[in-house]
Amino acid sequence: MAYLSEYQYYDNAGAAPSNANWGSYQYVSLSDIVNNFLLMYSGNHGLVNNEERYKILFHAKRGIQELNYDAFKEIKALELKVFDNLIFTLPSDYVNWVRVSLYKDGFLRPLTENIQVNSAASYLQSSTGTLSFNANGTVQTTTSTLDTQRVSGAQRSIYLNKDNTGDNSLPINADNPDGWRDYNIGTRYGLNTETANFNPTFRINKKAGVINFDSTMANEQCVLEYISDGMESGNDALVSVNKMFEDYLYAYVKYEILNNKFGVQEYIINRARKDKSSLLRNAKIRISDIHPGRLLMSMRGQNKWLK
Predict the structure, then answer these.
(1) Which of 182, 145, 189, 146 lies closest to 161, judged by CA?
(2) Beta-sheet pairing, 201-205 with 112-113
């Protein structure tokens, strides 16, 4: 395990960028994990012996992926502008979304996931409904009417935005000199709270790797907070794991190797499995972000007077 001097940590030993090592001390790299396992947990006098490095590397990466899905409290954030095509391309290491927000006027406005389908594939059909195929026998596709109207703004909305079909804006007349008056917003009896959102809406298409927005999101800034798979787009040199989970990762690799190895006694496999589970539980407790300061801030309003 490599240690850094304070000069290396704070100023990267005078090299650029100076912040390259900030926060790195609390993590251990994937290469160090594999090397440490080969040195300390593998050999003729260990349970794991005669294993190739690529197998240990494979199981270590799988363990880091599982930690990112299940245990890590680390959330990445990506900001991109949504143009007229109304799509936001998901990052390559995307696993699941935490929050999608509109950044406007200095505020992050959380967006609501659209309960309606707002994008679809469409097959090319003749006037009689017959599908068209190419020379390889694959059906030909075209842009769906749903996507066309969504991008153009013609698609109506069940949410409380400008595309809502029931805004009941009054025309200009003697009784309405202002030209319009929204009776629905804020005054509906039996309002469906699931759709009571004025901000843009979105729906994620994981297969296509995009977020589809309604037309009110055009030319706006979007911030995606998401869970990563921890693989850093395939660059093993950048893959790392928090030191709190280092022992668990060694136990995970040992269990996976023993569990897939021929001739290992069942009690040894069970012992390795229990060791892995207990270390994961301990690491989760240690890395939990339950802090007295956060609890105090949340409890300050318990005696607040309400009218």
Answers:
(1) 182
(2) parallel
Identity of the amino acid at 45: H
Q: What is the pLDDT of residues 145-202, one digit of tens each?
A: 888 888 888 888 888 777 776 544 444 455 555 444 444 445 556 667 777 788 899 9
Are the CB atoms for 160 and 198 separated by under 8 Å?
A: yes
What pLDDT does residue 203 have?
93
Tell me 42's DSSP state: B
pTM of the predicted model, to two decimals?
A: 0.79
CA 68 to CA 62: how far, in whole Å?
A: 10
- DSSP code per residue over 56-99: HHHHHHHHHHHHHHHT----EEEEEEE-TT-EEEPPTTEEEEEE
DSSP 118: -
**For residues 278-300, average pLDDT:** 84
- 296 three-state secondary structure: helix
**Distance, CA of 160 to CA of 169 (rounded, Å):** 13
Q: Span 6-14, mean pLDDT? A: 90
In the numeric block, the tokens 């055009």 are attached to: 218
Spacing of C-alpha 11 from chain mean position: 31
Q: Which of 27, 32, 37, 40 is nearest to 68 (CA)?
A: 27
**Which run of H or of E encompasses 37?**
helix 30-40
CB proximity list for 179: less than 8 A, separation 6 or greater:
171, 172
Burial per residue of 182-219, b for 16 or more beta-carbon CB atoms within 10 angstroms, e otherwise: eeeeeeeeeeeeebebebbbbbbeeeeebbbbbbbbbe
Q: Is the pLDDT of residue 284 over 70?
A: yes
Rounded to whole angstroms, the Cα distance separating 248 from 244 reads 8
Residue 118: CA count within 13 A, CB half-sphere: 29
Q: How far apart are CA 54 and CA 37, in angstroms?
A: 12
Cα 254 to Cα 264: distance, rounded to the nearest angstrom: 12
